[in-house]
Structures are given as structure tokens and as C-alpha cells.
Design brief:
single chain, alpha+beta, 6-stranded antiparallel sheet, 3 helices, 29% helix, elongated, disordered C terminus
Length: 208
């Protein structure tokens, strides 16, 4: 951006204002989808963690030396949705929002820095996704359990499993409205039934 002239920088700032407003609307949508999924599965949000960087903090704990990514914590974010007792087992549910697979798409080919955005995969072919993750009798973080560490590129699809952990990535486009979201929830419920022999969706409203 340092190579822009004054007029070009003026136009960029208009794009920045629009981008922040769009991002605020999008993140509100993500939060609403997460809340809806939790309600349908009878899980409740308890905590959350930024997974691409270290989230910026308030007061004197904030640092101007932090990455710009540290101020965009929902870029890759894990929603801890609590636990339920089902058929004698304790099940823990997570929802992971992945705004962009671009870094991970390219990192499969060569080791690149998270700060070198110019090396990220093309936005036209990258994906935006939600991972739905369930584990039985073992609390913890999907990233620490090696469930997601190697499955964050757009090439990872379908059921991902590791012992008592299972997860499925879904394209964000599939959460377009309530009807399409319900179809995703029914699909994940079916995969949970096959893997753990339980159902977490009490009423399946989605149609084939």
C-alpha cells in the first residue's frame, strides 16, 4: 500500500470502510448460525478460541506489535459448544469457522508465512467453511488431537476421524438459509449415528 498515490489510497479507504461493514454483517451471520446449530443439537456455547493467531487483548495486555491477524480473531475460530450426556456417554461438541482455506491450500505445496498474504491461494478457488466436530468421553481441542491440523485445506472433505473424535467440514454456502442449514444438520446427525450410534438432532426437519 505504500506505493499508492493519494487518490488511490483514498479509494482504498472507501473499500476498507465497506469491508469492515460487510465483515461485521458476515460475522453476525456466523454467530447466528452457530447459535442455531447449538439449539438444534441441544448444545450451548461455553467458550471460544482463535486458532490462526493469538487474539488481541484489552487494556495493558494489548500490544501494538501483534500481527494484524491477531485483531481478526474469527478468521479461524473454534466455538466450544459444551457437552451432553447421551446413552451413558459424554459428548463434547465444537464448531470451527474457517473464513479462508487459502493459507492452508498453499501450505500443502510449500511452507509459507501467515504474514505473506500474497502467497495465499487464490480467493476464487479457496473455501469458507464450518467444521462440525464431536468427541466422546474426551474433552479437549480438535487441533491438539491432530483431527484438524492436517485437514484445513479445501482438499479435505467428508468425514474426518481419529479414535473418539469425528468431524465434517461443510461449505459456508450450505448454511444459506434455515432449510439448507437443516439439511446440513441432518447430514451430520446421520454421520454421528453411523460413527457413535447416537443421534444428536432431536427433530430432523430437512428434506432430501
Amino acid at each position: 500500500m505504500e506505493k499508492l498515490n493519494s487518490a488511490e489510497f483514498h479509494d482504498v479507504l472507501k473499500d476498507i470502510r465497506s469491508s469492515y461493514r460487510l465483515l461485521a454483517l458476515y460475522q453476525r451471520r456466523v454467530l447466528d448460525v452457530v447459535k442455531y446449530i447449538g439449539n438444534q443439537y441441544n448444545f450451548n456455547f461455553t467458550s471460544g478460541w482463535s486458532k490462526f493467531s493469538n487474539a488481541s487483548l484489552n487494556g495493558t495486555r494489548a500490544s501494538i506489535e501483534k500481527w494484524s491477524w491477531d485483531w481478526l480473531s474469527m478468521y479461524l475460530y473454534e466455538f466450544n459448544m459444551g457437552k451432553r450426556e447421551i446413552n451413558g456417554g459424554t459428548y463434547f461438541f465444537r464448531i470451527i469457522h474457517q473464513a479462508d482455506t487459502g493459507f492452508f491450500d498453499e501450505n500443502e505445496k510449500t511452507d509459507i508465512s501467515k504474514l505473506d498474504i500474497s502467497k495465499f491461494g487464490n480467493v476464487e478457488v479457496a473455501s469458507t467453511r464450518l467444521f462440525l466436530v464431536l468427541t466422546k468421553d474426551r474433552d479437549g481441542w480438535p487441533f491438539q488431537k491432530n483431527l484438524l491440523d492436517n485437514n484445513l485445506s479445501k482438499n479435505s472433505e467428508g468425514l474426518i476421524c481419529n479414535e473418539n473424535w469425528m468431524g465434517v467440514p461443510y461449505e459456508m454456502e450450505r448454511f444459506y438459509n434455515r432449510s439448507t442449514t437443516d439439511k446440513v444438520l441432518a447430514d451430520f446427525n446421520q454421520k454421528v449415528k453411523l460413527y457413535f450410534n447416537i443421534e444428536i438432532l432431536q427433530t430432523i426437519e430437512a428434506e432430501d
